[in-house]
Design goal:
Strand content of chain A: 5-15%
Strand order of the largest sheet of chain A: 2-3-7-6-5
Number of domains of chain B: 2
Strand order of the largest sheet of chain B: 1-2
Number of helices of chain B: 14
Number of domains of chain A: 3
Number of strands of chain A: 8
Largest sheet of chain A: 5 strands, antiparallel
CATH class of the largest domain in chain A: Mainly Alpha
Shape of chain A: elongated
Helix content of chain A: 40-55%
CATH class of the largest domain in chain B: Mainly Alpha
Oligomer: heterodimer
Largest sheet of chain B: 2 strands, antiparallel
Largest interface: A-B, 117 and 123 residues
Chain lengths: 385, 335
């Protein structure tokens, strides 16, 4: 469309590559969390998530069976322990090499026999079967250690999700927090839309003194930090008996979302064709009828935009929930709060953290990809918040 | 009652109440108070039409006033008082402010906030502009845009977890699971770093999270602005022999300057209020305190409403220029 179109292939390549680099930079952090949520805790600590997609080289340290219980006398002071190293191990890979000392890890191939000195030998097959042979002193006490170099295929599990969402013994599970978040979000999204739509109509299409002033006030309140509202409103809620709870958080979200809602909807409604509205007035329609029958249906894109904003904002909110909703019992905790708790108590358990975080991220992401069109439109209409 | 059920009931009451309020208030206005019949029909219709806007506006204005306008005044009052045991308040003048100005943590928060205010809007707008310009003429540009825009949907807390994994450090002799340390060691770093515990620089690792989120927003707006540039101006520049960089910086940027300012101020406001990231990732330790978290500390941990409100007023003071600028522009547009 401009100077770069039809330019040299090298430039086109550079362009593609730099965009690719940018995209990778932006998706990598999220991808890391996503991949980690499907790995076990051991896997996460054993290797970086980026290597999870490929077969991994691992060195496993396994001991042979206890010689004192398992040895069989086969000759004059000659004992044998036979068995399979992978028995009881959660091993699905392929053995590349093995060794009997941490200083010589891959010294032997599968099928080789290692000479451990003084006639003691150890033979290991690719399938894990081994024969350990020696005299009575050698085949006793602690069992022989074997270091196995193995390639394990990538392995993913749904166990984390099962644990985080459905395990009833898990007191830090996300199931209740998920429901609580949903309980906060739905009323907090629907109620402001309706209230704001009427106000936006009045500000867009009705003539009355002070209208310009009110619009200016809405624009001004758009940037007022909600931090200022915490203590005054918590005091107020306590004074009128709402206290901490759902009603309080619904009201708070309604209030805080109101400026953006009015601003977005008014901007959109002002752009609707004047003819339609004036014709309806000439035909004797009242303002109420015009609003319900004409303005509301026509404003659907703007209503959808705001609904997405408010949904994302309330779903992702931490501060308002901390102040207006969550009381000392923690019964009403929401997902964001739960994750912050987990960061404190389970800081190293990435399988729990990653899965819990992804549970809370998944819904907004789905909404985002499904309704991206409206989100972009809303941003373009009123890019001030 | 189960909260979910309570939620459904609230939706029904809330939505029903709203619809009912608007419907019956209208009915009352037209049929009872000022009926459009009888001897005063003309006067009645006029009066009804004078009152109707206020009927439509009342719930929204009430919510705005109570939840945003009243708190500004009340916070200002609280910032000048001290809470006494038993729920009484004592007027203390500017004592809360002087106390706050004497605290090292406050100045640390101020310094960090200023740093955030410089870096985050600049980086987000810059990256956004870059992404908008580069993706505009790619066949897969829309896919790329979607991916860069995606963090917008992710909560700040979720992003905090995501980036904690990126910054994770493990002891030197075991495999690194944080990609930053992995790359750091790969490119010659001597030992794994606890990125969030290196004073001063850790601020930038926290800022990266917000930049990551806000860049998509900047990109979407700026991309629309770039597309709105009249093609003739660009074509004329090409005819005159301008190179791509000149076209971008001398032709395109000046034409979208107002949009850049809007994007910049919008991100500035979001940055000023940043709370979740710091709260979840460092909680202000290792010299990463910011104003919003300082305020939360004072209000809900130290239970000092006076100083907490004073710090909230500082945040308010910092957005005030933007507030005035927005109102000024909005009024200019309406004329």
């Amino acid at each position: 469309m401009d100077s770069m179109a039809g330019s040299k292939p090298a430039v086109v390549w550079a362009l593609n590559l730099s965009v690719l680099a940018l995209v990778l930079l932006w998706i990598f952090p999220t991808l890391g969390l996503f991949v980690s949520s499907f790995r076990t805790g051991d896997q996460i600590t054993a290797s970086g998530w980026w290597s999870a997609m490929f077969p991994a080289e691992q060195t496993l340290q396994i001991r042979a069976a206890d010689p004192d219980d398992n040895r069989v006398e086969v000759g004059d002071d000659l004992y044998v322990v036979e068995g399979n190293l992978f028995e009881g191990q959660d091993f699905t890979g392929e053995m590349n090499a093995w060794g009997t000392s941490s200083r010589a890890l891959g010294a032997f191939q599968p099928g080789d026999t290692a000479d451990l000195g003084d006639g003691e030998t150890f033979t290991l097959e690719a399938d894990g079967a081994y024969v350990w042979q020696g005299n009575g002193d050698q085949i006793s006490g602690r069992a022989q250690r074997v270091f196995v170099d193995a390639t394990t295929p990538p392995e993913f599990t749904l166990e984390n999700y099962n644990f985080v969402l459905f395990d009833e013994d898990n007191s830090e599970g996300m199931a209740r927090a998920f429901l609580n978040t949903l309980t906060v979000v739905i009323p907090a999204t629907i109620i402001p839309i309706l209230v704001a739509a009427f106000a936006a109509y009045a500000l867009a299409w009705m003539d009355f003194p002070g209208r310009a002033l009110l619009i200016a006030a809405v624009v001004g309140l758009l940037v007022v930090p909600l931090q200022l509202a915490l203590i005054p409103l918590l005091t107020l809620h306590n004074a009128i008996g709402i206290g901490k709870g759902y009603l309080g958080v619904w009201l708070a979200h309604t209030g805080f979302g109101m400026p953006l809602a009015i601003y977005l909807l008014r901007n959109y409604m002002v752009g609707l064709p004047r003819d339609i509205i004036e014709n309806a007035k000439v035909d004797g329609a009242t303002d109420f009828q015009i609003f319900v029958k004409i303005i509301l249906p026509l404003s659907f894109p703007a209503l959808a935009s705001f609904a997405i904003f408010q949904f994302l904002w309330t779903w992702n909110d931490l501060l308002v929930a901390l102040v207006f909703l969550i009381d000392a019992t923690g019964e009403t905790t929401v997902m964001t709060r739960q994750i912050v708790e987990l960061l404190g108590t389970r800081g190293g358990d990435w399988e729990i953290l990653a899965t819990s975080a992804f549970v809370s991220i998944a819904v907004p992401l789905a909404v985002f990809f499904a309704m991206q069109k409206y989100l972009v439109r809303g941003l373009l209409a009123g890019s001030v918040k | 009652m189960h909260p979910a059920l309570q939620g459904i009931v609230t939706i029904v009451i809330g939505v029903g109440g709203c619809v009912g309020y608007f419907y019956f208030a209208n009915l009352l206005l037209d049929k009872v108070l000022f009926p459009a019949r009888g001897p005063n029909i003309g006067r009645n219709i006029n009066r009804a039409n004078m009152i109707r806007p206020w009927v439509f506006l009342f719930p929204a204005m009430f919510a705005l006033g109570l939840y945003l306008a009243y708190p500004v005044i009340e916070t200002m009052r609280l910032s000048l008082t001290e809470r006494l045991p038993g729920g009484e308040y004592r007027f203390v003048g500017f004592e809360n402010y002087t106390f706050m100005f004497g605290e090292a943590k406050f100045w640390e928060a101020m310094r960090n906030n200023l740093l955030w205010l410089i870096v985050v809007p600049a980086a987000s707008t810059g990256f956004g502009l870059l992404a908008a310009q580069l993706t505009d003429r790619l066949r897969w540009g829309n896919v790329a845009k979607s991916i860069i825009f995606m963090p917008m949907a992710i909560s700040l807390v979720g992003a905090a977890v995501i980036f904690k994994l990126v910054y994770e450090a493990r002891p030197e002799d075991v495999a690194q699971i944080g990609i930053l340390n992995h790359l750091y060691l790969l490119f010659g770093g001597s030992e794994p770093q606890q990125w969030l515990q290196v004073p001063f620089w850790n601020n930038f690792f926290l800022m990266a999270v917000l930049v990551w989120i806000q860049t998509g927003f900047a990109m979407v707006i700026l991309s629309a602005a770039l597309r709105g540039i009249p093609e003739e101006t660009v074509e004329a520049a090409i005819v005159d022999g301008a190179n791509p960089f000149q076209i971008f910086f001398k032709i395109k940027i000046p034409q979208i300057m107002t949009t850049i300012v809007v994007v910049w101020t919008t991100i500035t406001i979001a940055t000023l209020k940043v709370f979740d990231i710091v709260f979840a990732m460092t909680n202000g330790q290792w010299e990463t305190q910011v104003l919003a978290n300082y305020m939360y500390d004072k209000l809900f941990r130290a239970n000092d409403w006076g100083v907490g409100s004073a710090s909230a007023m500082i945040i308010m003071l910092m957005v005030t220029p933007i507030l005035i600028w927005n109102v000024y522009n909005a009024r200019k547009e309406m004329r």
